[in-house]
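Hello Y.,

Per our agreement to keep a running log of every chain we model this quarter, I'm adding this entry. I've kept the format consistent with earlier entries: sequence first, then predicted structure.
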Amino acid sequence: MPPRTRNKTTAPGAAESANGTGSAAQRERRKRILDATLALAAKGGFEAVQMRAVAENAGVALGTLYRYFPSKIHLLVAALAQEFQVAGEKLDRSKIPGETAADRLLYVFERNTTAMQRNPNLTEAMVRAFMFADTTVALEVEQVGQLMEDMFARAAGIDNPTEHDRAIFHLIADTWMANLIAWVTHRVSSADVHHRIELAVRLLLDKE
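Predicted structure for the entry above:
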């Protein structure tokens, strides 16, 4: 994943609503924008997400959209964060099978990877945006990383992950995202992605 640095150029209101600290109206407006982004991406991939189309579908003025998200890269990385948040919430409501931390983490990866591969247009859009993200998208990238690491910690049964734990989860997340990028660019197969993730998880966690 890109390195985490706090974004100091976030548009007014965007950081607060992203972290759940804005007003109810801000949070509801932000969700409408992200839902519109996801719908457009699911239909046509990265190229289908155009700012004017997102604004129209979300029922907000174009200027309002830009105050929340300065570019489509911001939009799509934030949408990826929302998808991980929803996935994490679903995970909290279910029992994760597996005898070891590696087994449980692999279950989570299988579940999320399979879901993403079922919607290749949406996955292509979000993963490409994540790949293109620069330091101006640092807040959204940090949120994605935090959500992934938290989800992996819950799967591994770790309530308070140490810096060492988070470093391992970060490496695994890097491997996952790199292979999803390779998948959306047709350089590897779905089976390759699953195999490489299992290899990374086993190498890093079975020794713990």
